[in-house]
User: Which sequence fits this backbone?
């Protein structure tokens, strides 16, 4: 089939669905506040479920509130080819993060109906509970339970700041299903694709509409405390100081250098830093800060871990301070299934859409689902790389292009 | 006169006076809270004034509340040889900061009475209003008015957080005197000496009881704002970042390097630093911090100023951020009168007290008085270099040694 005769989704319909869903929890500055398992989330879920039923899909809800909507295939023994994302948002979230992946999946189903195409394998569009982790932790809860990262009972017992549990919140909004988490009618998915805004600046900087996501960076987060001694800035000569701020500053620079040594995928960030006593003429006696390391291989993360310990200890000795490093978060790197990555790349090529291979720097539901099924992701650019912000924005032509790639990739596995 | 026959102060009496004065405003942890122009300050002033009168001194109060207590000399035309310091404290202050200098001066008068010595020149012991600047700014207010740095009307109009003015607070505690500030009966002082704890670690580290203070470092303080762009720590590659934290960290290191380049007197400190938004997985878009530069010469401070601008601008360009530098404080360096510094050095030598030349890193009343009269200072060690803290401590033998040096230095100018 040549490029002109490939089936295409309806970009205007997809855009209108994105705008309609964004009206639920809309904020004055153009964003969306639809936090997981709130009344707004219920309204959003109800709307998407209604659309799925109107498209003739069979909707099921599992015990952690993940929703699966199935379009039957011609082969009763075939495993489903799936897609999905999430519809919960950050408190100051945008219209596209998560929502784009879910509604692109729905648009694929609607398009196949329009064209009268019946696939061999069934198709599923899922939305996963509490990806954002704003009200309840851990983040990516629904896909994490699906993947066996934690069990459903643990997840349902998690409580918000008011003591309300996930289980009770699911029941309150009518989304505590009976289906055991992780149980799909025909066994596990044959493949899973997730379309998502990039949430970063790479595609926009490259001027490309499609990112072929080869995997997701692993993450290791640390809390660091540097302890020196408070002293007067005036009467204390440099040689007699135990300056926690100076040592911490050199450590921040070392974090950046260690990340550069792991180019192109190494990333190192100090996002949080607190000085004590934080008075302009007192040499700081204590600095607490965070380190966020990311890399595409566990070997790379291990190298960064070792390099950080060596660098920080050397800096501390030279500055006459103590340093304490505690690891607080660990997500392993994820390499997506080559056949799914290839399907995304071939879909973009077949559609004549310029694209590049990229990695995801952030976590996504797809990273958990990848533990249970061959998985790929499709990125589209977002304006200025901004996400988790009411200013989050994307172009209609990029949204349409991403959904068309999703359609082709799913068809490649479901035909 | 050989060392054995030099007059000596009464160390036990001086120590007892220090402890008696420290009982007014005593804190549970062994410190003192006697903030300027409070009821506690009134009680402290009244006690010291009573002691002065009991020692036969003539007490006067000027229009900003500075107190002068005079012991007459034999030459009615001679200008006074003066000493002094302050008795107000920080909210969590210690027993020695300021108090030592005032009571060492009083002990000099008491000793001369004991020994029946009448000097040619009159002697004065002063305590200056509001050295600490805790309740009212500017700091070193009384000596600043005396020296003409600001006028008495300006100082009296300064208000605390409750809107109470210095003038009203002086009247309330009975220390708003009639004598114009800066007016001394016989004209200006012939010389002024101030004994003080070091408030730093140099003498303790050197194991010496006496510091001969040759001058005080000038100070230039700055507020700095680094502006980058907030972005997700995961999806944003290093090359596309505008990381305000990384740039600020390199600037902190540059402040230290610039100070090292001005050894031995250059000092550079970042005591305050605030990160925005200060979230562990967000690349910081803004960092605000302070810079405190000190040096013994204005040329040196000028070099530090220029080196900072060059360094910060280079770092900002390399990191893709903006930097804004505002100077907020300037105290000029002070070089004490060579004849007074020599008198202190000779006094220590004559007494057989090991000593070294030092500079003051902090401001003192003596720095202002030095604008009106030949001035010198005597430092004694304080435990661990700690001051402005309830843990502030000093050894009786060091306090006694410092007062003996003060006695000899004053006699050298007053005989």
Assistant:
């Amino acid at each position: 089939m040549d490029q002109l005769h490939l089936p295409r989704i309806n970009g205007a319909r997809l855009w209108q669905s994105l705008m309609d869903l964004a009206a639920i929890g809309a904020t004055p500055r153009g964003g969306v506040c639809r936090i997981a398992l709130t009344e707004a989330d219920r309204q959003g879920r109800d709307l998407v479920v209604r659309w799925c039923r109107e498209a003739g899909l069979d909707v099921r809800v599992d015990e952690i509130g993940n929703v699966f909507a199935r379009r039957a295939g011609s082969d009763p023994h075939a495993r489903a080819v799936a897609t999905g994302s999430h519809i919960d948002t950050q408190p100051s979230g945008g219209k596209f993060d998560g929502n784009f992946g879910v509604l692109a999946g729905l648009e694929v189903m609607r398009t196949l109906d329009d064209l009268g195409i019946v696939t061999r394998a069934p198709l599923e569009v899922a939305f996963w509970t509490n990806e954002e982790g704003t009200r309840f932790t851990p983040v990516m809860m629904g896909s994490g339970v699906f993947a066996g990262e934690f069990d459903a009972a643990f997840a349902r017992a998690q409580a918000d700041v008011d003591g309300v549990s996930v289980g009770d919140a699911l029941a309150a909004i009518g989304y505590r299903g009976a289906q055991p988490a992780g149980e799909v009618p025909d066994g596990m998915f044959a493949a899973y694709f997730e379309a998502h805004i990039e949430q970063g600046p790479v595609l926009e900087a490259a001027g490309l509409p499609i990112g072929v996501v080869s995997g997701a960076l692993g993450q290791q987060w640390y809390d660091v405390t540097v302890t020196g001694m408070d002293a007067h800035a005036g009467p204390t000569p440099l040689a007699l100081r135990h300056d926690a701020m100076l040592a911490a500053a050199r450590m921040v620079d070392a974090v950046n250098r260690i990340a550069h040594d792991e180019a192109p995928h190494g990333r190192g960030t100090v996002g949080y830093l607190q000085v004590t006593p934080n008075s302009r003429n007192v040499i700081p006696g204590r600095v607490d800060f965070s380190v966020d390391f990311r890399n595409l291989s566990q070997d790379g993360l291990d190298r960064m871990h070792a390099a950080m310990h060596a660098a920080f200890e050397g800096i501390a000795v030279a500055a006459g301070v103590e340093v304490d490093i505690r690891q607080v978060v660990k997500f392993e790197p994820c390499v997506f299934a080559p056949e799914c990555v290839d399907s995304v790349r071939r879909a973009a090529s077949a559609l004549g859409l310029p694209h590049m291979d990229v990695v995801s720097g952030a976590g996504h539901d797809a990273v958990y689902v990848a533990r249970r099924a061959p998985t790929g992701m499709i990125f589209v650019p977002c304006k200025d790389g901004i996400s988790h912000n009411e200013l989050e924005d994307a172009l209609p032509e990029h949204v349409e292009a991403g959904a068309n790639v999703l359609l082709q990739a799913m068809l490649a596995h479901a035909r």
